[in-house]
Amino acid sequence: MTDHAFDKREEHLVFLDKYHFWASGGSTGTRGLFVWSTDDYAHFAAGTLRQRVADMSSDEKSKDPLIKAVVVARDRIHMSNYLWGLKFIKNMQIHELSVSRSIKEIVASLNKIQPDHIECFSSVMVGLAHEQKAGRLNINPLRIGAICEPLFENERNIIEGVFKCPVINFYGSSEVGAHGINGDSGSSLMLSEDSCLLYTSPSPRD
Questions:
Q1: Residue 169: CA count within 13 A, CB half-sphere
Q2: CA-to-CA distance for 130 and 174, rounded, in angstroms?
Q3: For residues 80-113, b (16+ Cβ closer than 10 Å) or e, as one string?
Q4: Confidence (pLDDT) at 53
Q5: ∠ Cα 143 149 153 (to 5°)
Q6: In degrees rounded to 5, what are phi and psi of residue 166?
Q7: CA pair distance 144, 161, nearest whole angstrom
Q8: What is the pLDDT of residue 155?
Q9: In this structure, are residues 59 and 66 in contact, taking their beta carbons and an 8 Å threshold?
Q10: Rounded to an integer, what distance in angstroms lies between the CA atom of residue 62 and that of residue 41?
Q11: In this model, does residue 9 exceed pLDDT 80?
């Protein structure tokens, strides 16, 4: 299975017409290679994207096409590439950019694309906020999705302060799927209690 999973990194390969493979570097979960069935993945994707669809409903009416840029891992073996590249609104136009490109190249592409929505690694999005503040990046997104890495409060403040739009924080992992996501209403995560079991530990202060 490992040979199959890494055979063609730039294509999404399905094993035995049923199984999908994703590798994780461990930034939000456990480092490793994980196998998902098509049914499990469909359940995960629906649970992850349902809040996005609800939040984007007003944008869909005002923008045609609705342009989205996804700054994700280059290889299909990384879940960010496959999940966030899904077209889940009819009039959505998606542009994929590799997160491994230089910040200068990403800025040039975004200036050309002029996206309404961006899905991007959290740390890279902070860098793009600095580029916007410096005047090298000039975009006006309606929403920004922070993905693949933890989003800390100071990072959210920087991104929101520069772009003046909602920052949607998705927290998940390749081995579990969606843990939680926040909508436009605030920074608190809504836990995906209907798609995974979540355990909490007492705070060290307790």
A1: 23
A2: 29
A3: bbbbbbeeebeebbbbebebeeeeeebbebbeeb
A4: 63
A5: 65
A6: -60, 140
A7: 12
A8: 93
A9: yes
A10: 31
A11: no
pLDDT per residue over 33-89, tens digit each?
Answer: 777 787 777 776 776 666 666 666 666 556 678 898 989 876 666 666 566 555 556
* pLDDT confidence of residue 138: 98
- In this predicted structure, what is the pLDDT of residue 3? 55
Region for residue 42 given its phi and psi (left: phi exceeds 0; alpha: psi -120 to 50; beta: otherwise)? alpha
* Spatial separation of the C-alpha atoms in residues 27 and 122, rounded to whole Å: 11
Q: What is the mean pLDDT of the chain?
A: 76
Take residue 39 and report the two structure tokens written for it.
Answer: 């049914």
* Angle, CA of 21, 25 and 28, to the nearest 5°: 100
Judge if the upstream peptide bond of residue 166 is cis by omega within 30 degrees of 0: no
* Amino acid identity for residue 81 in this structure: N
The residue among 49 and 154 whose pLDDT is bigger is 154
Amino acid at site 133: K
Distances (CA, A) of 124 to 4, 55, 188: 30, 23, 22
Do 116 and 66 touch, CB atoms closer than 8 A? yes
